[in-house]
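seq as requested:
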Amino acid sequence: MRLKVTYCIVLYLVCKLSIAQSYFNNRYDNFNNGDISTGINLFNGNYLIYGCAANNFSLYSLNLGIVNYTGTRIKNRTYNWNSNLIVPNINKCIITSNSYFTIGGTNFYKTDTSLVFTWKIDQNLDSIAYHQYGFINQTNQLNGIIKNDIYIYMTGWVDSLYQNSDILLIKADTAGNEIWKKKIGVPTYDETAYCIKQCTNGNLLIGGLKQLHGTSTQGPFVMRIDTSGAVIWQNFYPSATYANGSFDVMELPNGDIVFTGGKAYNITSQGTMRRPMFTKVDAGGNLIWQKEYGEKAFGHDFFTFLINEKNNFVVSGEKFQLDNSANGMVYEINQNGDSLFSREYAVQPGSQNYFRDLVQAPDKGYVFSGFISPIFANGGTGNQDIWLLKTDSTFCEGAFNCGYPTGVKEMSYWDEVIGVSPNPTSDVLNISSRFSFEKVELLSVTGQVLIRENTSSNNLALITNNLTNGIYFVKVSYSNGMSITKKVIKL
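struct tokens:
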């Protein structure tokens, strides 16, 4: 009897572990053309994904899909409303019950004329009700939508012929009837709201991008408003020209507020070099800390985040590489803003792999949604497709050790770009690169330049026999403004 009980317990644990460790890394195509996923929600034990589908790149339709825990798409529905360009909201949709959900979005009638909508959809992805809102003959775009027990709040931006954009704020009842709509902004600034959340006291938080009109001075902003739309406070947190805005914001249990952003550095012909930022402010919007992460890179941005069971922030985003490809990325960050772990992912290496949203799965793993755009010059294949990646709770995409939580990561993209050997070194340090660099510097731990070589090459040897033993850094710089730094040890 004891043997039978033991066998049952072992069998139960094996089954439980096999369910807990689920992984997939999938592409989903609709019309052999352009597909994008902008968001993901948990819905009836499955994953609800939403975005755009296109049968040509000038006509986008609302696309909805349901994917089960194995990564199999079990339902798919595309809505093309009167043959206009349909764009869904970029933050979470509203899950009202197991029977239906409400998604927001934008219906473009012309390039500069649009209205926003809420669309109530049932569990079979069939339409129940559709409502439109906005300022007539202007550009209205919806990015965030939330619901409490009584009302729905929508935010985005509104513009008249792209002259000056203001925050769009709409309040409706749960039946979809508009109560009021407002523009919030000042004439000297362009404001775009990306996200909206409700506070514990009923107030609303809005995050987005603010730019001094006609200039490159821009950055994230956050505002707190009451449920009548009156501004309680609003703060602008510009870090540099062409900085990125806040795509997600959250109130913490103690009343502090955290939000994403991006600090810009140099501008090159290929784009703006940035590092993603994460910021914490108090309940009045006063800065507590603001931190940057990772290397300077093109399109190096944070998007949405969540808090996991360890009370850490899990932030998704993307980062471009030197060959114009992009990888999805994730950071786990503690309450002090310190990075605990980061990792990059791709469904097709060498192409552009974008993360736009994430959820934590019932097994405590993570599901990231986005899209992949192939780069044919790098060997990319197929079309622009929806991309879903499921990892376990340690951010591994398979049953192997990916370096969590020890901090010892496996080889990253940057290890493949440049090689530094031998490390530790004694007399000569050899630097090699997949791409031609224009400058190599050897730095002390205090940042002092000890050796500088200006050369257009893929390989270089640095003489190190006259250096004292210790820790140094090799900084390799490229003509596009990007640089990579690696630690070396001299023995």
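Residues 1-20, 406-413 have pLDDT under 50 and may be disordered.
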